[in-house]
Every structure is written in structure tokens, then in C-alpha cells.
Write a structure and sequence with these properties.
Number of strands: 8
CATH architecture of the largest domain: 2-Layer Sandwich
Strand content: 15-25%
Shape: globular
CATH topology of the largest domain: Beta-Lactamase
Structural class: alpha+beta
Number of domains: 2
Largest sheet: 6 strands, antiparallel
Helix content: 40-55%
CATH superfamily of the largest domain: GAF domain
């Protein structure tokens, strides 16, 4: 029988770390732990605390909390409105958007979007959620002389845009209510709905149909339509949308584009899964 070791536990732990493979040592470094925290927060459906991350990360709770405070100070995490729990911050969402815009799969997604525009003959976009706004990460313009120009990187509000309402509709109720309470529900046109109760009623229908229509609620004379792009876990990660001037496209006509938009969304979702981005 092997005699028990007389080496103090801390010394044994230090020796184990010293002889551990490089990848294991990296996983336990400060940078590795911070990245693990960011990954866990990003994968969570709602706000989380250090206590909730502890079982999966295996990092001491005080260490997780210190890392979360550091990441908050850097803008990679932020507090959920009205809560002490954490959600992805502006810098983390900006990084995610930049990664999608500049990823190797961008050319494939752009070609899918181009084929969609060729079919529906209206401007189409891919959008993502960035904090409490919607950002355009890719776009193909239609060839009509009359059109609205919103370049990649443009941001639009959540409560009155077709893509924004899709993201809101798939959020947990607590997170959705916190966002609607924290952001100004600005009236952009006479059709903009700013009453939270009315917005909630609309979101129920959007969630049920997985179709969101903007009938001149964000911009006068602009009709928008959006459908969700789902990731490998079945969560909404982006949208495919189109918009057109109301002089050329009625809401009823826009709804006829739902089938090709959904086909494009499914194809774009596959590119995200194949590249590990979704």
C-alpha cells in the first residue's frame, strides 16, 4: 500500500498545475476564466449571477463575481435593468456583430441574401440584436429608383421595427419587460405604438406566427417584414427582413414574401451552424 503523501495540499495543487498540459493551464488562467464567464453569459437565455454560473464553470463563486465585475467595468457585461444579475454588455454584443459581419461565412450569407432580393425584388437585410437596438449586419439593395437606404451597421429601435419585435417576442417575459421599461418608447410616426400593453399584445401574435410586420411604424412610407433565424439550440440569433416603400408595396403584398424569406433564413441559419457562430 502506497504511504500517504506528506506534501501540503497547496503544494500538491501547485505541482499539478505545473505539470498540467498547456491547454489545461490556459483554461485555468485569468484570461481563460474570463472567457468562460463570457461564454456562459452569452449562452444563457436570461440574466445570470455568479451563483448560477458556478455549477457549470467549477470556478469559485467569489472569483466568478470578481471577474463579472471586471468585465462589467470593461463593458463586456452589464446589469439587467432593475436587477443585480448580469447580461451581455455593449462591447460583447459589438464583438459578436463584428464577428458575424467579418466572418468567413459572410460571402455565402451575402449570396443567399442576393438570391432572395432577385426573387422578391425588394431590399433585404440580415439583422442582429445589439443591446437594446437592432443592427443591420448585411444588406442587398433592390434596383428600384425609389428605395430607402440603411447601410450595414445602421441601428433601429426594437419596439417599432419588424426585426426588433421578433427579438422581443422570443425573450423571456422578465427580460422583455425590463427592456421595454428601460428604453424610451419613442413615437417615430403616427402609427408607432408606445403603450407597453399594446406592444405585448402584438408580441404574442408575432411569437405565434414567427412573422413580424412593420406598417409605417418606424418610418413614414416604409413597409417592413421580418422572419427569425434560429441557432443550433433553436434560439433566435438573427432575422432576415425586407422593406419597401408603401407606394409600391402594401402590407398584404409584403406578407406574400414570407415563404422566400423563411427559406433564406433557414439557409443562413445553416451557415451559422456550419461555422460555429450560431
Amino acid at each position: 500500500m502506497k504511504p500517504p503523501s506528506t506534501t501540503p495540499p497547496r503544494a500538491r495543487a501547485a505541482a499539478a498545475r505545473a505539470t498540467a498540459p498547456a491547454e489545461q493551464d490556459g483554461a485555468h488562467s485569468a484570461a481563460g476564466r474570463a472567457l468562460a464567464v463570457l461564454q456562459s453569459v452569452s449562452a444563457s437565455d436570461g440574466a445570470v449571477s455568479a451563483v448560477e454560473l458556478f455549477p457549470d464553470l467549477g470556478i469559485p463563486k467569489p472569483t466568478i463575481h470578481r471577474l463579472m465585475l471586471l468585465l462589467e467595468s470593461l463593458g463586456f457585461l452589464e446589469r439587467e435593468p432593475g436587477s443585480k444579475r448580469f447580461i451581455a454588455g455593449r462591447e460583447l454584443t459589438r464583438m459578436a456583430v463584428d464577428t458575424l459581419i467579418n466572418s468567413p461565412q459572410r460571402a455565402i450569407r451575402h449570396s443567399i441574401l442576393q438570391a432572395l432580393v432577385d426573387e422578391v425584388q425588394e431590399t433585404c437585410n440580415v439583422t442582429m440584436l445589439a443591446g437594446s437596438e437592432i443592427v443591420y449586419v448585411d444588406r442587398v439593395e433592390a434596383h428600384w429608383p425609389l428605395r430607402y437606404h440603411l447601410q450595414s451597421g445602421s441601428r433601429v429601435p426594437m419596439h417599432c421595427s419588424a426585426s426588433g419585435r421578433l427579438f422581443l417576442s422570443f425573450m423571456p417575459a422578465r427580460k422583455r419587460r425590463a427592456i421595454l421599461a428601460a428604453v424610451p418608447l419613442k413615437r417615430f410616426t403616427a402609427r408607432t405604438v408606445t403603450d407597453p400593453v399594446q406592444i405585448e399584445a402584438t408580441l404574442k401574435q408575432v411569437r405565434a406566427t414567427q412573422i413580424s410586420l412593420d406598417n409605417e411604424e418606424f418610418m413614414d412610407g416604409l413597409i417592413g417584414l421580418a422572419v427569425p433565424v434560429f441557432d443550433r439550440r433553436g434560439r433566435i440569433c438573427a432575422t432576415v427582413s425586407m422593406h419597401a416603400p408603401s407606394l409600391r408595396c402594401t402590407p398584404e403584398h409584403a406578407l406574400s414574401f414570407v415563404p422566400p424569406l423563411k427559406r433564406a433564413a433557414q439557409a443562413i441559419g445553416k451557415t451559422l451552424a456550419a461555422s460555429g457562430e450560431g
